[in-house]
Design goal:
The chain is of the alpha+beta class. The chain folds into two domains: 12-69, Winged helix-like DNA-binding domain superfamily/Winged helix DNA-binding domain (Arc Repressor Mutant, subunit A), CATH 1.10.10; 76-258, Beta-Lactamase (2-Layer Sandwich). The protein is 43% helix and 19% strand. It is built from nine helices and nine strands. It has helices at residues 12-23, 33-39, 44-57, 74-84, 86-101, 143-150, 154-161, 177-190, 232-258, and strands at residues 30-32, 60-63, 66-69, 104-111, 114-121, 136-138, 193-196, 203-211, 217-226. The longest helix has 27 residues, at 232-258. It starts with 11 loop residues before the first helix and ends in a 17-residue tail after the last helix.
Amino acid sequence: MAGRGTGPDFVEALARGLDVLACFNPDRRTMSLTEVASAASLARPTARRLLLTLEELGFVTSTGGVFQLTPKVLSLGMAYVGALSLWDIARPHLEELVGRTGESSSMAQLDGADIVYVARVAVPKLIALRVDIGTRFPAVQTSQGKVLLAGLTTEQLDATLAEPSRSGLPPNVSRTAEELRAELSEVRARGWALADEELAPGVRSVAVPVRDSAGAVRAAMNVTVHAAETSTDRLVHEHLPLLLRTAGDVSTEWALWQSRPHVELRRPEAGPASA
């Protein structure tokens, strides 16, 4: 965490503040000062100053010495998603897909060696892992991650695979670098990826790319099922065609939105009044 910056313009205090925010997750919704300091690898006085600053800014609240995030932190992530306009475009398509499959569907993007969920339409299922907007998983263990990794150049892939996962999950699949690259090559060729209980027992999913107006893979969309309820054959032969069609529709609409003739002009500042 803190202390890893190397550039001359790296702001360590900002990095530490972000580390504090990142400490909170679905399993640690509330934490004491000591717990935050330990989780962020910070000294207690430093963690205290950062928490009080974040509280004054409205990102953290405290009661009886216990800290938790406020809804204001959503503005940090949703500003990014909103800027892409991807959620507004994808939502009706995801809802229709879920209505037809009866299974949850999500959209994720790549962040280092992990995927981060940016959109989700879920149905109540007993799935081993909880997924919310902002949830982070190791890319190599997920169908969406494989799709996103397959969309990288050789240089980008090398750099990404060299990064450690920040998801906090231990590796669940043993494969060599050569085996992974061979699988990604296959994913790239066929246009979809499968993850069969690689992330957690009982979790099976298939994913396809979502492309921007230039044809670059910018996100991945999946259908997730419980392995005990849905076979791989059904997932691939029944749900995958619907998923491919849905992702294609989202990609097309997003490309149209990106190419819209839209320009925002700043209003000129009022100058001194003329006599």
